[in-house]
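User: Hi! Is it possible to get a structure for several chains at once, not just one? Here's what I have:
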Amino acid sequence: MCQDCGCSTNSEVRINRLDGVTGEVCSVNAGHDHHDRLFVLEQDVLEHNDILAEKMRGYFKGNSIFAINFVSSPGSGKTTLLEKTITGLADEMDFYVIEGDQQTLNDAQRINETGAPVVQINTGSGCHLDADMIHRAVHELEVPNHSVLMIENVGNLVCPAMFDLGETKRVVIVSVTEGEDKPAKYPLMFESSDLCIVNKVDLLPYLDFDMEKLKNHALSVNPDIQFVEHSAAHPQSEWFDWLRCHAIVANLSPNGE
Amino acid sequence: MHELGLALRIVDIATEHAQRNKAGRVTELELIVGAFSGVMFESIRACLEIAKKDTLLDDAKIVIEQISGRGQCQNCSADFEMSGLEDKCPECDGANPSIVGGKEFQLRSIRVA
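Assistant: Yes, the chains can be modeled jointly so their relative placement is included. Here is the combined structure:
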């Protein structure tokens, strides 16, 4: 058994029901071979991922780790945002980073320059991170208690929406150069996110971008989503304040110290 | 190539159940795909046809039931079908209904021989 999170690597364990088999229903339906047996499984295909994600969620909570899953399309400014966050809040928080890309160590190398411990997951042809990858990365990174774990997902607004990583909060980043109808085009991603960072707002004077429309599109699929506006070019307290507020909540010990 | 990975996972789950119950082959597989599950219906069928080759599911008939999105209005409690996550209540025009159906992506059953 894993000493850190209790995961079991014992594949010989079997859980047996008293009726002998799992979900067996005897069936003599016409049109089927009478040797056919029907098994009603009703098994969620992503069950394996979801169970592991919940285990990770419990592990993060139990160890006061504030885990954030950053999702966006490629080029939204995720890595720069992480760089600025780490350097800006280095005195206040301990940051650990999991980078996700199909290929290269480029983003991990950039994060490494900030001094934050980082591992890079290369998915090959994979288009998203999943809970199993995060589980392995967390062991590799040896994330300690009371730290902030930033997971930079593969740049993709479609597939990562389906995969729970066990994160404490999911943050979707949209840059103002992407157009205000992004939430309407990719509703599942915005529906599943807690915070929307509208990035590169320093470029607004050069664009015909309607901030209210963006927010309304996002709110129409997720009325609880919050917003912060951000630019790496200028100091922005809004994002740092959101992070401070939620990190405090996540890092409270059971005794409320 | 997202749906191929999901198809491989489905084949694994079905194979595991068949083997656990000492069956030699899977003759039919029934899948439920909800409209809000994020899974492309056509793509998952095509990928399953590829993924099942040379496995216990090689001859299996693939049956896929599509489930439409369903919402419940938080204002008037009306239950209604939804085609998009941004749909409003057809009774009272209330926004942001609770999503009560359409997120399913489930291996409902297998037939084995």
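The first helix of chain B runs from residue 2 to 20. Chain B touches chain A through 33 residues (CB under 8 Å).

User: Great, thank you!
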